[in-house]
Known about the structure:
Helix 4 crosses helix 11. This protein has helices at about 5-10, 15-25, 30-60, 75-85, 100-105, 110-115, 135-140, 145-165, 180-190, 210-225, 240-255, and strands spanning about 65-70, 90-95, 120-125, 165-175, 230-235, 265-269. It has one domain: 3-Layer(aba) Sandwich (Rossmann fold), CATH 3.40.50. It is about 50% helix and about 15% strand. By secondary structure, the chain is α/β, with parallel strands linked by helices. It starts with 5 loop residues before the first helix and ends with a strand. The chain has a six-stranded mixed beta sheet, with helices on both faces. It is globular and about 75 Å long. Its EC number is 2.7.4.-. Pfam families: PPK2. One of its GO terms (biological process) is phosphorus metabolic process. Uses inorganic polyphosphate (polyP) as a donor to convert GDP to GTP or ADP to ATP. Keywords: Kinase, Transferase.
Amino acid sequence: MAEYDLNELQKIHENKDVLNYLEQHGILEIKKFNDVYDYEKELYELQVKLLKLQYEIIEKGKRVLIIFEGRDAAGKGGTIGRVTQYLNPKKVRVVALPKPTEEEAGQWYFQRYIKQLPNAGEIVIFDRSWYNRAVVEPVFGFCSKEQHELFMNQVPEFEKQLIDDGIILIKLFLNVSKEEQAERLKERKEDILKQWKIGVLDQQAQEKWDVYTGYIENLFKKTSTKKSPWLEITKDNKKKARLASFKLIINALVGSEQEKIDSFVTKHD
């Protein structure tokens, strides 16, 4: 246990001296502290900007739809949590639809998602979306080849209609390396507080990595348009990926690159 010199502590009058003292006595690593401080500071600033934009969305009756897709354990849930943390909860909804019911399975594929589209003044965030049919469903054989191809042909026109009707559509794809995914899935298994995150399909994410990759590449090729591009964030650092997500959302809402785009972000259009 660290020992403290009362005389030394009494001489400290400035914050920087406190930090220096803690570092010298092996209590604190300044670099790690600064990294966390810088992240939290930038995150807060971006959350404030997003909240101000929400005021405008509410006032002007705009409709915003944000789609979060990505590989398993890429950090979608954590990012969505930070995005919504300080927003007006009455005007933001997170939608994570379960497996289709028997009735829904007999409907047009987009039908159950249409019910969840944003109302005037509202932000809706899809934690996974109709794009299940582009990647997850074909990877695991949950849809036929014909159903997959039909979806891929229909989705660009479907999204064009949403945008033409005034919906602001933002599509984010979070990607990680195979090695990083393996580490995060391992952590989920070992951490009792994270074990609820492990699904049946997550356990096969590593085994089917290459199959996933093929469908993801096809996703960008077939469903990215100038009106509705995919914004891919490829970063193993969760904090940097979260900040990048905020910047992309803010830029899309203001209609310009107000926030500097990071080098690990790819715009597919």
